[in-house]
Amino acid sequence: MAEPSGTVRDLEAVSRFVEHFAAQLVEAGLPRMPARVFAALLASDTGAMTSAELGERLRISPAAVSGAVRYLARQHMVSREREPGSRRERYRVHGDQWYEALTNREAVIRRWEGALREGIASLGGDTPAGRRLAETLAFFEFVEKEVEAIMERWRTHREELFGGGGGIGKR
């Protein structure tokens, strides 16, 4: 298999990587088909493929590709883009997909924090359940602050490693 960069790759080795990495993502909680699609996009030099290309590469149906891409787009792990002069969509993974996915998780944590505050107010902060919720809230607040600091350090580190845009698949 030749990538657009002209590099010839062992198709079986690429397939093994895609399936192995997808299995790791599944173990971490990502559904199987989105994990496979994400790994296939990540393993392509362009970071982008059409539905037909993904279906052929992974030997899956167009419906499976569509469902996987829909899930990944909601998680901010891939984006859809139109091919110039075509009605076909390409699905792209970006160099900052982990950053985007983690940032999306921060919004979820903030919603949990709000719900925990309500729970503490309802249960009373001096009850065993209220104290348990308060500790959980304190944990999420701590994690949120730490993630913000980590993300800032990552932006600096990424700039040092890859320059202004992060390379292939940058936004």
How does this model look, in words?
With 171 residues, this protein is mainly alpha-helical. A 3-stranded antiparallel sheet has the order 1-3-2. The radius of gyration is 20 Å and the shape is elongated. It starts with 10 loop residues before the first helix and ends in a 9-residue tail after the last helix. The C terminus is likely disordered.
SSE arrangement:
Layout: H1 11-27, H2 32-42, E1 48-50, H3 51-58, H4 62-74, E2 79-82, E3 89-92, H5 97-123, H6 128-162
Antiparallel strand pairs: 1-3, 2-3
Helix pairs in contact: 1-2, 2-4, 3-4, 5-6
Give keywords:
171 residues, 3-stranded antiparallel sheet, 3 strands, elongated, disordered C terminus
Gyration radius, rounded? 20 Å
Number of helical stretches of at least 4 residues:
6
Order of helices and strands: HHEHHEEHH
The percent of residues in helical segments reads 55-70%
Strands, count: 3
The low-confidence runs, each spanning 5 or more residues with pLDDT under 50, are 167-171
Brief summary:
By secondary structure, the protein is mainly alpha-helical. The protein has helices spanning 11-27, 32-42, 51-58, 62-74, 97-123, 128-162, and strands at residues 48-50, 79-82, 89-92. Strand 2 and strand 3 form a beta hairpin.
